[in-house]
Amino acid sequence: IMGQLPAVIRAYGVLDFEPSRLLSHLDELVPDLDDGSLVTCVYGIFDPFTRECVLATAGHLRPLQLGPDGCHELQLPENTPLGVGGRGFTSIRFNLQPGRSLVLYTDGVIERRSQDLDSAVTQVREALAHRYTATPGDIADTAIKAVPGPAEDDQALLVIKSEPTALAYRRIRLPALPEAVGDARRATKETFAAWG
Description:
Layout: H1 5-13, H2 19-33, E1 41-46, E2 52-58, E3 64-67, E4 70-73, E5 92-95, E6 101-105, H3 117-128, H4 136-145, E7 157-161, H5 180-195
Antiparallel strand pairs: 1-2, 2-5, 3-4, 3-6, 6-7
C-alpha cells in the first residue's frame, strides 16, 4: 500500500483539496488497497510567500514546531488512521512565523524497543530546542540522532523552514486572452532583470 498511496496523494494534491478533504478521500480508498493494515498520514500545504500552513493528520505523530521559544508539538485534532472510516478529518490553519521550522517525521525516527514513544518525542524536542537558527539539513540530522539505538523501521523526516525575511514576488493580473502570453513573458523578464 505504501507504494500506491504516494501516487494517489499526488493525484488528489493537484486537485487543490484542503488537507482534511484529501484525507477523507484517502480514508475511503485505503480499505480497497490493503488487507486491513493501519495507515497513518499527515498532509499539509505551505505557502512560502504568505507563510500560511494548512495541516491535517490521520493518526500520525504530531509535527514539531521549532522557534526561539523551543520545540513544541503542534496541537492537532485527534484523528484515526486511514481506512478506519466513520470519522471526519479536521485541518488546522496557521502562519509559520519568519525563521520558524516545522518538522514532520515517521515513527521510525523515534521508535526503539527500549523506550516509549512519548519519552522519545521528548528527546527529539529537547535536542531541537536550541537549534532554531540551524539549517533544515542540520535540524534533520539532529532529529535523526536524538533517540539513541538502532532504528527498527524506515525513517523519513521533512523540515520546512519559513525564511527569516519576506520572499520577493510580483503579482500581475492578465486577461484570459492569447495575446496576454506575450505580456506575461515581458513582465517575467522585467521582474527577473529587476531582481538581478
